[in-house]
Amino acid sequence: MFPHHLSPEDESQITSCDFESPCSWSFSNHSIRYDWRVTSPQQHRSSTQAMRPVSDHSEGSSDGHFLLLSPSAASRASRKCEYHITSPVVYNSGPLCHLQLVRFESGPTAGNLSVLVKPVDSASVISTAALSGRAQDGTRDQWEVLEAVIGEVDEPFQVTLLYSTCLGKDRGSLALDSLELIDCDMGHHELQLGTDCDEITSFHCDLGGCIDKTRVCDFHSDCPLGEDEGFICDTLPYGAHCSFEPGSCGWSTSNELSSWRRVSGEELGHSKDVLGTALQNTQGHFLFLAVRGNSSSIKASVRSSSFPQPVSTTACQLHFSLYLYGEFNGTVLLSLEDNGTVASPLVWERSGQWKDNWQDITLQLPALLNGFHLKVKALWGPGSNADIALDDIALGAACFDTDLNSLLLGHRFFHEMDSISKLDFFSPLPEPSASEVTLMTWWFTSCGASGPQGPTQAQCDSAYRNTNVSVTVGKEGPFKGVQTWRVPATNRYMISAYGAAGGKGAKNHNKRSHGVFISAIFPLEKGDILYILVGHQGEDACPGRNPLTQKICLGESSVIEDAFTGEDWAGGGGGGGGATYIYKMEGGVLVPLLIAAGGGGKAYLEDPESSLDQIPLEQYENDTVATSSNGKTGAAGGGGGWKDSSSYLWSGKSLLEGAEGGSSCPQALSKLSWATFGGFGGGGGACTAGGGGGGYRGGDAALTDDITAGGQDGISFVHPMGEIFLQPLAAMESHGECEIKVQLNCSHCQTQSCKRDEDTRLILCLCHNEEVLASDNVTCTAAVPQSLTPKGQLSLSLILAVVASTVVTGIVLTCASLTLNYQPASRPQAASTEVYYRKKNQLHAVRLRLQSPEYKLSKIRSSTIMTDYNPNYCFAGKAASLSELKEVPRKNITLLRALGHGAFGEVYEGQVLGMNGENTAMQVAIKVSSSSSVSFTPP
Predict the structure, then answer these.
(1) Residue 686: inside a domain, yes or no?
(2) pLDDT in tens, 50-86
(3) How confident is the model over 217-227, as pLDDT tens digits?
């Protein structure tokens, strides 16, 4: 629906619908793919499924648009045989009100088109209007004008066009165009506020009256037309209005039976373990926890994603539905985790048992000064046997916006346009002028999403709020999660793409494989549509999602390495990183412009025989006929390419298949339930080996489940129409990104290179070494030789010598630093210190290789520095053995503060006295084994 204050131009858009501009009629859909879509004759020239009109009706042109009924395979499989479109609300009508439209139908006359008039506040039908028009023969292969008399209706109503047919794949087609409600009063009714309506605390309903702001987006429709629960709720932060239908909304669920998990009533309907009947009869999805007395667990918690600080301390309410049935000897707690404090204030708790039904709960949130998380925790004792469920969690719209009425008007128009799947409409940012465009930079991110699937429109609306970026996010097929952006002005643009990094292995977490950065310049025209898929980082194997995998991550279990006889243990590799794709559509064909490849996932263990020489160089293709296939899939999933298909669930999907990240290999899921996904953008799923990175050509995964075999990086791509600016470099450590800005015109500069001054915004020409820019800001002249060094001033060579000697001294001292490991001895007065060190046979060769001038700079930047090994001990470049380490008396050691918990025990910052022959303290890090840490407490 559109705003109720309408100009004559606005009203004409509502009364008529020619599909050349935004249309306010809504369409029925029986699957995630739209059954109705706006299209043009040009898009179906090669179609052989059914005859299409050669021109639309309203424009009489092959470039015009019309509405086509094109049921998806899912719709046909579900045997849904009714499809409809519905008008906006008509407040009342006179006796001359009638509907006029045109219809195109080819093939057998298999369907029936009827007109229903329905009141707004009821599901009943006021009347059924007959369509009349010029009759055609059995094929009806021309546009046919039809009319239906609506007549006088004295209450708000909507007109529904209902088409009844069971269209098969070859049963013809139906198209509609030029819909118009004629002589119908669209209701120039000013909103009449009641005496209890307050502009500050109230939300205005379209049919008059108002409701309290706290009731907006609480999963209960209070306005007659339901606009308080409509698309205004899509503007809320991710997870703030969650029915669990699209997914977990960022809540930390698990697949374990003893944990909170997302299920549907239909799933529980097949289970004999459910105690009551209400859950089995509940429609849709919700969070579910089965509390059973035979389980070793005594608690379970679930945590939301992060929410921003509320804008209101009085109007922010939390609404949710809770189900608790059975013998429950425990408590359900709801707390707030303030991002800026340690304490988690308790908001609500409930004990005992309830009846077999859902309970709606509303809570006033306390004042918060930071962003926060919600946490629901269940605690129970012996003898408990109950079912707990959570659904319809809503932080009201008043929590995040103070002017809901303006927010509603601003978003209504554009969300209605979004229901038309094949037309591109964009957020209402003012269009910049050509001069302003040259000063702008557009940054595109993952919108806060992570994992194998892309972001939603609500996530990107939230992420790009108060920025110059406006995108439309695809909802279906290969465009799901893809951000669509319109070029604001004709110019040469520099596009920089960053692929996402791969995930870390369970015991291979020193460094992840970086995503690839690549940059190129493209000529783009105003109005061009760019499709931008931002890659997601491959998932890390740790911290693990269940107790057994968590033990492996902490080093307390080695079942993967041990490889028990007869047991098929697998898992612990990292997922492949997703590629970042920038592409456009030409003649209905997707054309890649720039692709930055994702990094491969790390294996469970680091290969002890690996060396820097084995790090592959970054690669890219520059030819559209080059192979664009998926990477090889073995035990782990290969990365997705540009155009390919795969039947393996753990393989990353190609872009044309939707670019979803692959799941874990079946062995990892069956034994350990170790789910480690590849990132959105074609990242391969993990096994014990790592998954391949996405790209124009996906990275390969190991054919066998090698415990040290990481996935390969993907291959990047630059279209021949682009001019490469920066060669590919593995540099990205997290999710992917994309930057677009106008390339500066430096043609007037003598060197053809320039930059923009950050302060004045003026373009400054750049000169080569030993040259300076002349006063004309164009030419370069030789620099004037400097005079001899003034008396009393240090020479440059002396300064460089001092700096160089300081650096060398610092390196030697750093290498000579000592890390002690405290282990209590049998004697109470002394303790032996054991140094854990790593054997690296090629360490000396690596040092020489790093110093070699032939070594590529890109390898140095992306390589693990030799001092990254922890622990790592050397003295003046020579490694120390265990026998060379001295015993340190316990009295000489002082612990200062805890640094963290590692696989070998607790790690502390401390001091050692009297070890260097002087009465000075030496700063050290001390590892205390788990068995002794309790007896060695820091001050």
Answers:
(1) yes
(2) 567 888 888 888 778 888 887 765 555 555 677 888 8
(3) 888 877 766 77
CATH number, domain containing residue 765: 2.10.25.10
pLDDT tens sequence across 135-191:
554 444 478 888 888 888 888 888 888 888 765 555 667 888 888 888 876 544 443
**Same-domain check for residues 820 and 766:** no
Cβ-count burial 327-347 (b if 16+ within 10 Å, e if not): ebbbebbbbbbbeeeeeeeeb
In 330-470, beta strands by DSSP E: 330-338, 346-351, 358-364, 372-380, 385-395, 441-444
Residues 667 and 723 placed together within one structural domain of the fold: yes
Extract the tokens encoding 387.
Answer: 């079912």
Sign of torsion over alpha carbons 753, 757, 760, 761: positive
Tell me the pLDDT tens digit for each residue of 44-54.
Answer: 554 444 567 88
Using the 3D structure, point to which of 182, 206, 230 is the last residue of a domain.
182
Q: Measure the CA–CA gap between 864 and 860, rounded to whole angstroms.
A: 8
**How far apart (Å, rounded) are the C-alpha atoms in residues 373 and 341?**
12
What CATH number should be reported for the domain holding residue 35? 2.60.120.200
Could you tell me if residue 357 is inside a domain?
yes
621 with 737, same domain: the answer is yes
Query: CA-to-CA distance for 415 and 230, rounded, in angstroms?
Result: 10
Give the separation between CA 324 and CA 379, rounded to whole angstroms.
Answer: 13
Number of domains in the chain: 6
In a domain, 212, yes or no: no
Q: How far is CA 30 from CA 34, 472, 662, 879, in A?
A: 8, 22, 27, 68
Question: Same domain, yes or no, for 500 and 528?
Answer: yes
What is the model's pTM?
Answer: 0.45
If asked whether residues 30 and 77 sit together in one domain, one would say yes
Asked if 722 and 774 sit in the same domain, the reply is: no
Q: Are residues 47 and 153 in the same domain?
A: yes
Q: Is residue 764 part of a domain?
A: yes
Bridge partners of 162? 84, 114
Euclidean distance between CA atoms 832 and 889, whole angstroms? 7
The letter for the amino acid at 446 is S
**Full residue range of the structural domain in which residue 859 is found:** 841-866
Give the three-class secondary structure for 209: coil
Q: Determine the average pLDDT of the residues in 469-487.
A: 91
Cα–Cα nearest to 544, from 501, 505, 513: 505
Distances (CA, A) of 412 to 2, 157, 159: 6, 19, 20
Q: What is the rounded distance in angstroms from the CA atom of residue 441 to the CA atom of residue 350? A: 51
Q: Which of 494, 405, 376, 401 is nearest to 441 (CA)?
A: 494
626 shares its domain with 681: yes
The residue ranking higher by pLDDT, 629 or 745, is 629
Helices (H) and strands (E) in the chain, counts: 12, 47
